[in-house]
Each structure stands twice: as C-alpha cells, then as structure tokens.
Amino acid sequence: xxxxxxxxxxxxxxxxxxxxxxxxxxxxxxxxxxxxxxxxxxxxxxxxxxxxxxxxxxxxxxxxxxxxxxxxxxxxxxxxxxxxxxxxxxxxxxxxxxxxxxxxxxxx
Length: 108
Description:
Layout: H1 3-12, E1 22-24, H2 26-29, E2 33-34, E3 37-42, E4 45-48, H3 60-64, H4 74-79, H5 82-90, E5 92-96
Parallel strand pairs: 1-5
Antiparallel strand pairs: 2-3, 3-4, 4-5
C-alpha cells in the first residue's frame, strides 16, 4: 500500500469515541460546490472546506473547482501542512455512500 492510500484510509475510517458523521450520496455532495457551501472528497471521506475559502492562499477558486465531488482531493490533502491536515479532519461531515436504486416503476 502506498503513502497516499495509507493516509486516505486513515481519514476514511471512523475512530472509536469520535463523533458519528452522516453518509451522503454523490448527488448530495454535488450540491456543495459554491461559496456558500463547499465540500470535497478524500477517498470516500467528505469534508466541509467552506471556512477556508476566504483565507486559502491559492484563492477560493482553487478549492471550488474541486468541490462538490468534482475530484478526489487525497493528493491535495497530502500537499498541505500537518496543521492544515488537522483542520481538514475537524471539518469532516461524513462518508460517501452508494446512491439507492430508483424503483423501476414510478418515481419513488
């Protein structure tokens, strides 16, 4: 297992005693791709990075172009300092889950 996989796995698994997080489908994650709410994916872990939009050295657009599940940000997480990685971890909102199947007949 390479370093990216090890760190991504560490961020995805729930730590006993830590607060429980929700599970969200990709359709739900995609709604969080704007200045008011920006979520990014690291593997299957979902983080709210909205608080960092104004202060990010690369500018808000650097985050927004990858928000809403547009890209896996595992490598982006590794690029940041240990301090920044801890901030990401504090803002975990949940885990990605598979979309439920839509019924064959009817809408829901």
